[in-house]
Write a structure and sequence with these properties.
five-stranded parallel β-sheet; 13 helices
Length: 404
């Protein structure tokens, strides 16, 4: 006869940011918590984030920084666990950090310190962690317990937390397991796609720009009513950089994508002033002083007519201004999950409680972090969602079992 499964108050599948936060929060409340992780070590995505420095939160976090089919869902958790709560934890562990861009906080030394902090908090709270532990089957017993069959044996608990992340960066072990599990328990999973991802060009559009690989400039990228003013980088296959990663979450093939190449300036006014001050200078020379030289030359070869400024009449000057303030970039696709920082879409939040992250269909089943249809902008917002959703579930675990 098979031995009975080892029993816990709660089992968390996934030892990423949201899973570890959920586990330590529940453990601190006296619950016996098990975390199972199929990778050989916890927090792999945390370790590689922010170039190894981990952009662990953003002090300017608001619900407006998230994309979801149900935009109100993230409000409750974000309000109850703010960036300042996480900063307190970081400071308690004496981890030095700095603000890189407004609101974006990074470790001074290494993202390893954030993982160590979470693991130390888990250990102190009595959380049991099992890396290299693959879940082979999940069932729900008649009594309501969740039964897990894994490569480390069988486990049971009245509460199960799915913290398996999305499909981004499969080389780090990302899989669709969480979505499959959600569907098994009757949940809708909204269509997923890569977010915060470089865009690719094809055909003539790529040929025109491929040799500019490595050239960077500040732009304002605009698509579907959204705009982001940050750096853009030309790559061998297309475009990347913060402005492109940000707008990629709002762009889909066929959508118009326009770039303001002189953000913060009135292009027409600036051109008129240049024409007056330097009538004999060629357009490409004038543009090279505000844009990377190679890019300015390419614009004048293919999109604009290069001639001395004095030869540009009013309609021609207006045409140049239009191109500079709304340069059309015809992207064909994205680099996909291979390099995407996040996954858009996921478990439909209309079937999940916004205050406890608990399924409205299956009592005791919770979803946290990226597996849900909540996706943050670039800049620490996705980590803040992981901390906030993990904390919300960790506070709620065991309530149903105790009749709370």
């Amino acid at each position: 006869m098979a031995a009975s499964p080892a029993r816990y108050d709660a089992i968390v599948i996934g030892a990423g940011a949201a899973g570890l936060m959920c586990a330590l929060t529940a453990g601190q409340r006296g619950l016996r918590v098990l975390v199972v992780e199929h990778a050989n070590k916890p927090g792999k995505k945390i370790l590689m984030s922010g170039g190894g420095r981990c952009n662990f939160t953003n002090t300017g976090t608001t619900p407006a920084n998230y994309i979801s089919a149900n935009p109100h869902f993230c409000k409750s958790a974000l309000a109850r666990y703010t960036p300042w709560h996480f900063i307190d934890l970081v400071e308690k562990h004496r981890i030095a950090y700095h603000e890189k861009a407004p609101g974006q906080l990074f470790c001074d030394v290494s993202s390893k310190l954030i993982v160590k902090m979470l693991l130390d908090e888990c250990a102190q709270a009595g959380v049991e962690l099992r890396p290299s532990c693959t879940v082979e089957a999940v069932e729900q017993a008649d009594a309501g317990d969740f039964l897990l069959r894994t490569t480390h044996g069988r486990f049971a608990a009245p509460s199960l937390v799915v913290a398996t992340g999305g499909l981004s960066i499969p080389s780090m072990g990302a899989t669709g397991f969480g979505y499959e599990l959600a569907r098994r328990f009757g949940h809708q999973v909204l269509p997923t796609r890569a977010g915060l991802v470089p865009l690719t060009l094809s055909g003539r559009h790529q040929e025109r720009l491929a040799d500019l690989s490595g050239v960077a400039l500040e732009v304002e990228a605009r698509c579907n009513g959204r705009s982001f003013r940050e750096a853009m980088l030309f790559t061998h296959r297309g475009v990347s950089g913060p402005a492109i990663l940000q707008i990629s979450s709002y762009w889909q093939p066929g959508d118009e994508l326009l770039l303001d190449l002189l953000p913060g300036r009135d292009a027409a006014e600036w051109l008129r002033a240049q024409q007056k001050a330097r009538p004999d200078a060629e357009l490409k020379t004038v543009l090279s002083e505000v844009l990377p030289r190679r890019f300015a030359q390419r614009l004048c070869e293919l999109w604009l007519q290069n001639r001395p400024m004095r030869q540009l009449d009013v309609p021609q000057l207006r045409k140049v201004a239009e191109v500079l303030s709304a340069w059309p970039l015809v992207a064909s696709g994205t680099e996909g999950y291979r390099t995407a920082e996040v996954t858009l879409g996921g478990v439909d939040t209309r079937e999940v409680s916004s205050s406890t992250m608990e399924s409205r269909k299956v009592p005791g089943l919770h979803f946290v972090g990226e597996v849900l249809d909540v996706t943050g902008w670039l800049g620490g917002y996705n980590f803040q969602w992981a901390w906030a959703s993990g904390h919300a579930a960790g506070q709620a675990l065991g309530q149903a079992a105790r009749g709370g």
